[in-house]
Specification:
Indigoidine synthase fold, binds manganese (II) ion, alpha/beta, 13 helices, globular, binds pseudouridine-5'-monophosphate, two-stranded parallel sheet, 11 strands
Length: 306
């Protein structure tokens, strides 16, 4: 395999890998498609500094000029944030074409997992994962993130599944594929903007150290695939359940009326929810990413000692 032709790891991340330092991977679709400019760039840079403050090395991942980049410069993050929706949202299926044409791609959870794994990074923090969309029984819109979780050995720390998705079907899919869904200090799967969803996780685990032990056990015995570590949004930033439920229902309706499909779906819904909640959902989204980054550091720090 001629990986060197494609993979470009930053000096800082290379050194961290060589010294077995804890590293936390970060995705870039959240920058280009998940949040508006300039909050996207501010958040991406702050999440990196939070990771450093918490004793790990951040590795933001994207595809730039046909290279799989692990560890971006401030300028590169700014470039992706400014270009926003103009950058290709790159999931698993998009990677080969972007490499061949020397293009740019903002990596989703699925493709960030793939690239992190190539670089031997095992812990990844983000906001939310893709899942089974509402109405998937007709549209078959099921995020490639779920298949990736079934096959690529990277743990994804997120704030649960948001109700733009069918949370119940998303959990069923993960169960079928053998992906552990762990609640950090909670028995209930958080629903991104809120701490509750009405659905249970498989296991409640109360410390980052035990989560690291779980990952180690899984991969030691050769069970392929990742894990979902669901971390509830901090109480003080959680949104009112009725307010967010209403906003999401209206956004889903508007997406249907406008025939929004495929890879446009998640970015469209996120942006609508933000408008309907007058920006409150964006504030919640930013805070939960910071919170997930901190937990990911705890897991990564223990994992490197095992
Ligand atoms: N959920 C969010 N913000 C995001 C995404 C999901 O709250 O930015 C992005 C992630 O990159 C995720 C992708 O991997 O959307 C899922 O898109 P799709 O459903 O098209 O696979
Ligand atoms: Mn989709």
């Amino acid at each position: 395999m001629n990986l060197n032709k494609y993979l470009e790891i930053s000096q800082e991340v290379k050194e961290a890998l060589a010294k077995n330092k804890p590293i936390v991977a970060l995705e870039s679709t959240i920058i280009s498609h998940g949040m508006p400019y300039p909050q996207n760039v501010e958040t991406a840079l702050k999440v990196e500094s939070i990771i450093r403050e918490n004793g790990a090395i951040p590795a933001t991942i994207a595809i730039l000029k046909g290279k799989l980049k692990v560890g971006l410069s401030t300028e590169e993050i700014d470039y992706l944030g400014k270009k926003g929706l103009e950058v290709t949202k790159a999931s698993r299926r998009d990677i080969p074409a972007i490499l061949a044409t020397k293009g740019d791609g903002a990596t989703t959870v699925a493709s960030t997992m793939i690239i992190a794994n190539l670089a031997d990074i095992k812990v990844f923090a983000t906001g939310g994962i893709g899942g089974v969309h509402r109405g998937a029984e007709h549209t078959m819109d099921i995020s490639a993130d779920l298949e990736e979780l079934a096959m690529t050995d990277v743990a994804v720390v997120c704030a649960g599944a948001k109700s733009i998705l069918d949370i119940g079907l998303t959990l069923e899919f993960l169960e079928t594929k053998g992906v552990p869904v762990i609640g950090y200090q909670t028995k209930e799967l958080p629903a991104f903007y809120t701490r509750k969803s009405g659905f249970s996780v498989d296991y409640k685990i109360d410390t980052p150290e035990e989560i690291a032990e779980l990952l180690k056990a899984k991969w030691d015995i050769g069970l392929k695939g990742g894990a979902v570590i669901a971390n509830p949004i901090p109480e003080e930033f959680a949104m009112d359940f009725d307010l967010i439920t209403n906003a999401i229902n209206n956004a889903v309706k508007e997406a249907e009326e406008n025939g929004i499909k495929g890879k446009q779906s998640t970015p469209f819904l996120l942006s609508k929810v933000k408008d309907i909640t007058e920006g409150k959902s964006l504030i919640a989204n930013i805070e939960l990413v910071y919170n997930n980054a901190k937990l990911a550091c705890g897991i990564a720090k223990k994992y490197v000692t095992l």
